[in-house]
Amino acid sequence: MYLEIITPEKKLFSGETELVKLPGTNGSFEVLMNHAAAISSLAKGKIKVKEPNGNTIYFEITGGVVEIQNNNIIVLVDSSELD
User: Fold this and answer.
1) What stretches of the chain show up as alpha helix (H) in DSSP?
2) Per-residue pLDDT tens for 5-55?
3) What pTM does this model have?
């Protein structure tokens, strides 16, 4: 899957991932390969990104929105800090 995490100031992440865990406003959820198309609002919390090489990266966000379609994930966040 290809993931982009973007703030109004800059692109925080772009690249291939195996798993993305997101803090949805109705609870956290995970996105794996071939996930159904979806759009969701995001609450304050952490985004977990597992890369194909085994590395795991966390981004602390204050809120935003995610679009999932055809193994492409675009996350637009208000602001973030890299853990």
Assistant:
1) none
2) 999 989 999 999 999 999 999 999 999 999 999 999 999 999 999 999 999
3) 0.90
Residue 19 in tokens: 């798993």
What distance in Å separates the CA atoms of residue 26 and residue 19, rounded to the nearest whole number? 19
- For 47, other C-beta atoms within 10 Å of its C-beta total 25
CA distance 23 to 48: 9
Dist. CA 75–CA 7, nearest whole Å: 9
Tokens coding 73: 């994930």
Dihedral (C-alpha) 44, 48, 49, 52: value to the nearest 10 degrees?
-170
CA distance 8 to 78: 7
Q: Which domains does the chain have, with CATH numbers?
A: 2-82 (2.60.15.10)
Cβ atoms of residues 68 and 61 within 8 Å: no
